[in-house]
Amino acid sequence: MAKGKRYDEEFKKETVKYVLENNKPVAQVAREVEINENTLHGWVKKYGQQPEIKAVQKFTNSDTELKALQKQLRELEEENEILKKAMHYFAKSPR
């Protein structure tokens, strides 16, 4: 069984940045750089959540941005509720 081409980490990260910055479909970018589409999907999944790469991602429309902000709001509200419960717990417990 033949092994596929090996790419260095920097190439992978830059390709993922390119996908996210330009908001192009993964299939199109895969054709442009001549790599397998599934390979690029894996890179996006692996590197797409890194802070330096996530920061370059642009929102395509207001709906996408709104959904992302609503998700962030839900997470912050949940964290706030947890902190309130902890505050009440520690305020009631005898020392």
TrEMBL record:
GO terms for molecular function: DNA binding; transposase activity. Keywords: Coiled coil. Residues 59-86 form a coiled coil. GO terms for biological process: DNA transposition. The keyword GTP-binding does not apply. InterPro entries: Homeodomain-like_sf (IPR009057), RD_transcriptional_regulator (IPR051839), Transposase_8 (IPR002514). This is Transposase. It comes from the Bacteria. It comes from Evansella caseinilytica.
